[in-house]
């Protein structure tokens, strides 16, 4: 097990009034358990505002949790500081959605990608040599390294961001919508590159995306998030071929011609369209958080919050209806 999140939560305070007092909280992640095995590509999916990016950042301690614990390679790193935090930083990386924003506009690419090594005491000349070596592995020529971010194409900038994430040879990388800012042909190249690098460097990925076709082709496990909670998780094939949670079904049924897109018609998913807009994460509904939009809502859904229960090996769902059917 490379990563274990236990009952992890992150609340962001909302301030208001003249004295800027805390008047509420955005409950971005609200009690999540996640276990990531070495070699996994674990996808986190959900609408915007579901908490998936916050969960990705918590996973590598780019954010401190409000509650819960983070175990990385068998060690509790929830409160890691100093050398322990430095070690964690070297073992993890992140690639953001928009490479243009994540690369310093006034620095040359070579300085941006070798910066983590130099900060940690590596001789700059040696750090540049390592950066050139890594850049050639991701298809960036040496001359591109001596340019500024605005002089590169979107795909080249994302390759530079990948070099920066890889330069320490980390074990775990969070990919936060790594292709959504790119055009379609470049997306495929970057996805192929990420697959090749995973094999080459024996990486584990946490893939945050709203693109379910990417999940099907790249990931082996998936967790579906709704309003800060995981509502269903398990192996990708099981969840795509027989989703149980109404929210998961609605996400999958939003893909046009899903039966043809995936596995030659093997999948036969009923169509569900949730009603209304998602509620605010500052005031999630009582009981099941999806009950205000769920076409199958029953009485208990409005009173009690369902917990994740196994429906079959490794496949978990948090839904009262399924628990009733399985009882
Ligand atoms: Fe729908 Fe109830 Fe299941 Fe929530 S618990 S998804 S409201 S059936």
Number of strands: 12
The largest pleated sheet is described as: 8 strands, mixed
Compute the gyration radius: what is it? 21 Å
Structural class: alpha/beta
Helix content: 25-40%
Keywords:
327 residues, alpha/beta, eight-stranded mixed beta sheet, 36% helix, globular, binds iron/sulfur cluster
Task: Report on this structure.
- The chain has 327 residues and is an alpha/beta fold.
- It is 36% helix and 24% strand.
- The protein is built from 14 helices and 12 strands.
- It has helices at residues 52-59, 82-91, 99-102, 109-119, 124-137, 142-145, 154-166, 184-201, 212-218, 236-241, 246-253, 258-261, 299-303, 320-326, and strands spanning 3-16, 21-36, 41-45, 67-72, 75-76, 92-95, 172-176, 204-208, 221-226, 229-235, 309-312, 315-317.
- The strands form 2 sheets. It has an 8-stranded mixed sheet, sandwiched between helices.
- It binds iron/sulfur cluster (SF4).
């Amino acid at each position: 097990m490379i990563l274990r999140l236990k009952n992890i939560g992150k609340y962001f305070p909302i301030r208001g009034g003249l004295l800027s007092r805390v008047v509420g909280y955005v409950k971005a992640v609200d009690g999540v358990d996640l276990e990531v095995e070495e070699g996994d590509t674990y996808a986190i999916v959900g609408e915007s505002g579901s908490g998936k990016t916050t969960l990705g950042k918590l996973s590598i301690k780019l954010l401190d949790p409000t509650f819960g614990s983070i175990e990385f390679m068998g060690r509790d790193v929830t409160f890691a500081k100093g050398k322990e935090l430095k070690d964690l930083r070297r073992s993890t990386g992140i690639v953001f959605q928009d490479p243009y924003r994540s690369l310093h506009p006034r620095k040359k690419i070579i300085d941006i990608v070798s910066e983590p090594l130099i900060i940690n005491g590596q001789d700059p000349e040696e750090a540049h040599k390592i950066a050139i070596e890594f850049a050639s592995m991701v298809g960036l020529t040496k001359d591109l390294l001596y340019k500024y971010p605005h002089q590169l194409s979107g795909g080249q900038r994302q390759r530079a961001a990948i070099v920066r994430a890889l330069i320490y040879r980390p074990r775990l990388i969070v990919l936060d919508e790594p292709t959504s800012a790119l055009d379609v042909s470049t997306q495929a190249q970057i996805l192929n590159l990420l697959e090749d690098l995973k094999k080459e460097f024996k990486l584990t990925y946490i893939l945050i995306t709203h693109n379910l076709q990417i999940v099907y082709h790249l990931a082996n496990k998936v967790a579906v998030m709704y309003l800060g909670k995981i509502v269903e998780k398990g192996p990708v094939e099981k969840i795509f071929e027989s989703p149980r949670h109404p929210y998961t079904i609605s996400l999958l049924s939003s893909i046009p011609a899903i039966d043809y897109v995936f596995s030659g018609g093997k999948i036969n998913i009923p169509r569900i369209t949730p009603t209304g807009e998602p509620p605010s994460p500052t005031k999630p509904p009582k009981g099941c958080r999806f009950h205000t939009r769920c076409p199958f809502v029953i009485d208990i859904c409005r009173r009690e919050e369902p917990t994740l229960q196994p429906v079959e090996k490794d496949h978990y769902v948090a839904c009262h209806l399924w628990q009733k059917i399985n009882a």
